[in-house]
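Holo prediction — FE2/S2 (inorganic) cluster.
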Amino acid sequence: MLPLWLAGKVFRAQARGPSKRIDLLSSTVSGTPPAHPEGEIKRRDFLFLAAGALTVVGAATAAWPFIDQMNPDKQTIALGVPIDVDVSGIEAGQQIIVAWRDRPVFILHRTPENLKTLKEPQVVNDLRDPDSKQMQQPPYAANWHRSINPDYLVVVGICTHLGCIPHLTKAGAAELGASWQGGYFCPCHGSKYDLSARVFEGVPAPLNLPVPPYHFVDPKTVRIGANPKGSNWSFNAIEQI
Ligand code: FES
C-alpha cells in the first residue's frame, strides 16, 4: 500500500533507448487512493504520484521509501538509469512526482507569479542559502530559480532534515500564515522551503532540496539522471539528501 496519496496522476515508464520514457496516462485528482484494485496497481509498469496545483494536500506525511512500492523497475532505477519525463501535460502551477534512483523527484511547472516570489525580499531574506552556494545542485542550476528552465523546478523531494517528503503548499495556507508565498512544507518537524526548494532559516532542515542531474532533450521532455552536454557533474557531489 502506498503511504502517501497526494492528488494524483498515473504514469507509465516504457523502455526506450538508454533511458526510460514517462508518458502521462491519466489525470485524476484526489486526496485518497484512486479506486484501483490493489492488484492493478502492482501490475503497472511504474507508478507515479502527482501533487495537484498549489493546493494543500491532506495526506499524512510519509517516509520516502514509498517508492519501494513502485515495481518493477526498482533495481534498474536504483542504478541511476536516466528517465525521460514528458512535462507537456503538467499545467502551470502543478507538480508531478517521479522516481529516480529510488527517490521521489518533484517536477513543478511554475507560474510567472510563482517565479516572482523567488525574488521577493520577504522570501529571500529569510532563506538560509538563497544563492545556492552550498553544493545542493549542479552548477547549471546554481541560480535564483535553481533550474535550467525557470518554468520547471526539478528537485529530489526528500527533506534534508530527516527524510520526510515535503508537501507543495499554496500561498496563504492556513497553517503557514498569510505571509506564506507558497513552497514546500515538511510537517514532520516544520521545515519550510520556497518554490525553488530553498530552505528557510529557523527550521530543522539544514540545506536546500537537492537538484539531480538533468537536462531537456527537447522542449517537452526532461531527462533526469543525465547532465546537459559538456557537464560531468556527479550527484555524489551534493552535500546531503
Ligand atoms: S524530516 Fe522534514 S522537518 Fe524533519
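READOUT: The chain has a mean pLDDT of 76.
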